[in-house]
Amino acid sequence: MKSPFRLKTAVPILLAILLLGSVALNGYLFLKAKQYYLELNGTRLDPLGLSAYPVGEAVVEEEAGVITAVFFGDSRAAQWPNPDGLEGYRFFNRGVGSQTSVQVAARFQAHVVPLTPDLIIVQMCINDLKTIPLFPQNEQAIIHNCLANIDQVLAEAEQIGAEVILTTVFPVGDVPLERRIVWSPAIAEAVKTVNEHIRTKASSTVFIFDSYALLADAQNQLAPEFAYDELHLNDAGYVHLNTELVQFLNHSPQN
């Protein structure tokens, strides 16, 4: 039987722990709310994220025998490092974090065209699909808009004579507790649906790079060894993608 002294000592300690936990949780939630507030108002000031890169810069000079390639899309594209071990390529990155597919497609003319690319590597749509739990009544419209914006990027790439490596949408990973209130299995299902359509887009100028298959584990989630968080890759994830991308490019029609 515990002594009254021990109980009197334990209760204040427990209360102090609970208080500290509450303060830490509220601090975390405040920082998250501030982050989203800043992102929201930043988007209002620059809806397309045009300030992320120079707009209207001079056309990049062509180099004989060198292929100009551009990573284009959302944060997953923005964080994609240039692959090593490739000769005859120069890479630019025009990814912008947190962007939906409509934002990505709408800045093609400003951010991609001036670079006169030969090749565009596209990763987009997850920021649309992750909103499905917030707007479940719009699920089909959200998926449809993703596909329409992919088609727009492909059409504009064709207009400037660029080939496209269209990557499937990366799988989503294990969702932390604090995010589960705004999450749903419908997101992962929508990713699969969009990827099924992406795989039908292959043509003489559009090549499908199945990044989903490369990154998914047996449960069709982002493999833990490649995950920075539930949406983004760590360094090992990009090394894995680039190893396959180098092989893909070395065997492409351009080579």
**Helix and strand sequence:** HEHEHHEHHEHEHH
- The span between the termini is 80 Å
Mean pLDDT: 89
Coarse morphology:
elongated
Q: Architecture of the largest domain, CATH level 2? A: 3-Layer(aba) Sandwich
Which percent range fits the helix content?
A: 40-55%
Structural class comes to: alpha/beta
**What is the radius of gyration?**
22 Å
β-strand amount? 5-15%
What's the number of extended β-strand segments? Answer: 5
Question: How would you sum up this structure, described in words?
Answer:
With 255 residues, the chain is α/β, with parallel strands linked by helices. It folds into two domains: 1-45; 54-250, Rossmann fold, CATH 3.40.50. It is built from nine helices and five strands, in the order H-E-H-E-H-H-E-H-H-E-H-E-H-H. Helix 6 (139-159) packs parallel to helix 7 (185-198). The protein is elongated and about 85 Å long. The mean pLDDT is 89.
